[in-house]
Amino acid sequence: MRRRPMRRRLRAGPACAAAALLLTVLCTGQAPAAAPPGRADLDQATVERLDEAITAVMRQTGIPGANVGLWIDGRGDYVRSFGVSDTSSGTPMKTDLFTRTGSVTKTFTITAVLRLVDAGRVGLDDPISRYVEGVPGGDAITVRRLAEMRSGLYDYAEDPKLQASLKADPYRTWTPRQLLDIAFAHPAQFAPDARWQYSNTNTVLLGLLIEKVSGKSLGEFLRQEVFAPVRLSDTVFPTDAAMPEPYAHGYTDFTPTGKTADASLWNPSWTWAAGAVISDLDDLHDWVPVLADGRLPDGKPLVKPATQAQRLDVEPTGHPGISYGLGIMEVNGWFGHTGDLPGYESLAIRLPSAGATLVVLVNSDINHENGSASDLIGKTVTEIATPAHPWSSPAAARPTAPGPSPNSSPSPPR
Length: 414
What we know:
This protein has helices spanning 44-61, 105-118, 143-148, 160-168, 176-184, 200-214, 218-230, 281-293, 305-311, 373-385, and strands at residues 10-11, 38-40, 65-72, 76-86, 91-92, 99-100, 243-244, 251-252, 261-262, 278-279, 315-316, 322-324, 329-331, 334-341, 344-351, 356-362. The protein is of the alpha+beta class. It has a single domain (10-385), classed as DD-peptidase/beta-lactamase superfamily (Beta-lactamase). The strands form four sheets. Strands 2, 3, 4, 5, 11, 12, 13, 14, 15 and 16 form a ten-stranded antiparallel beta sheet that branches. It has a two-stranded antiparallel ribbon with strand order 1-7. A two-stranded antiparallel sheet has the order 6-10. A hairpin with a 5-residue loop joins β11 (315-316) and β12. The two termini are 29 Å apart.
């Protein structure tokens, strides 16, 4: 059930002024005099431990703000806001603010593909060349391998020239074909299914497949086949740099000088099917159980049980403790996805064995030395609330996306 009406006011993107460096931001770094705003009906001892521990992570990482939601069947909810949504005005963070979700978008895109599979219009073992022309080795790369991140195709987001271009003009509009041209200018990293490697190129290709088969834009198909059935009234696939209001400002150091800037209205077209979706805490709370369980709240399947079983048939990634299925990751029993892009980080996961859902939204992608803030908060929350299944900060060694891996090993999901 929706807790508030849908908000449709859009603020389109004039150039944003650079924000000041993130020093001490109001509540961030200070233990609150009272409980953070929000709601919580878990037992009082757990609530107090979570408040204190998350505040400590805020202090440790220096991030401006975060929204944290934990829902556990039979135990209660914990929904809190920490810090500020706008460092220039000091506006407090609120749980109903829109945010960019980054690679959590992949869960929506792959679900759309699975809807086409269930309709008999796409086969998971079809070659991508059947749907998209010009893919090097496309006759041997299947839809399944793209969704599993086992295609071997180069990740265009790792291209140094693209990264330099994004820093120089973050408001530029990119087309999916431009992104693929960048990817295909690089040789394949390995033969299809030889190993696992995270690549945004895979999901962009699947976005084009959706458009080719459905005859609709990716955004329209997502609205009709994914957002609407789950009643995600505050989830948007943008076609420009607009953000629905009210939104959390997002802060990044992915800039030419390395100084912190407000990236809220930077154009996300370079992420497209791989990372452009905008959502909020409540909608992601509604989405993650459907993603992990395959069923809508009324019990009807969003994807067929046999298809859902294939989604959850995860395989090791080469990163300790991390497995990956069809557009979904698994870490210590938690299923879902992480995400980041300049200004924002997200964590949206489900622990089916405990009936627990955790969503963490952070309005900065500036990594701390111990890892991304969203992963650190996720680790902190789960160590307290579900100690038998702690989140293990899988992206702790990965720099803020877009950016190269710190070593030659494949990057974990972000």
